[in-house]
Amino acid sequence: QVQLVESGGGLVQPGGSLRLSCAASEFTLDYYAIGWFRQAPGKEREGVSCISSSVGITYYADSVKGRFTISRDNAKNTVYLQMNSVKPEDTAVYYCAAAVVPVQIMCVKNSAVRYWGQGTQVTVSS
């Protein structure tokens, strides 16, 4: 079965760093745009960052620009989200996702996602 598995979530202090990983099975990531979405309690799921399938074009939500970095390693079939200078408002369940649309569409349109991971909790608290 097609599967996206997130890892790396946990508890981190404000200002700290965390790296999330998304590993794919049964398909290769190089044919898909891959993104990270997050959902906090009582809020809508929102796109955080997405990266294209080929040349590495990226998209970042305004709330994370300059703090988060998305990258992909197609040889390892894995996508990463490096989270630096984290804030309490970054607390959410983070989901990895795959789509076949451009990243600027994918990251602002949840319905464009073809596959979702199960999510990993990130909690930013002192």
What does this protein structure show overall?
This protein is mainly β. Helix content is 3%, strand content 47%. It has one helix and eleven strands. The chain has one helix at residues 103-106; strands at residues 3-7, 10-12, 18-25, 33-39, 46-51, 58-60, 68-73, 78-83, 92-99, 115-116, 120-124. Strands 2, 4, 5, 6, 9, 10 and 11 form a seven-stranded mixed β-sheet that branches. Strands 1-3-8-7 form a four-stranded antiparallel β-sheet, with no helix packed on it. A hairpin with a 6-residue loop joins strand 4 and strand 5. The mean pLDDT is 93.
Q: Which key terms come to mind for this protein?
A:
126 residues, 1 helix, mainly beta, 47% strand, 7-stranded mixed sheet, 11 strands, 4-stranded antiparallel sheet, single chain
What is this structure, in a nutshell?
The protein is mainly β and 126 residues long. 3% of the residues lie in helices and 47% in strands. It contains one helix and eleven strands; from the N terminus they run βββββββββαββ.
Which range does the strand content fall in?
A: over 45%
Q: Roughly how many Å apart are the termini?
A: 39 Å
Which spans of ≥5 residues are poorly predicted at pLDDT below 50?
A: none
Mean pLDDT: 93
Describe the sheet with the most strands: 7 strands, mixed
Tertiary shape: globular
Helix content class: under 10%
* Radius of gyration, whole Å: 13 Å
What order do the SSEs take from the amino end to the carboxyl end, as H and E?
A: EEEEEEEEEHEE
How many β-strand stretches? 11
The secondary structure category is mainly beta
H/I helix tally = 1
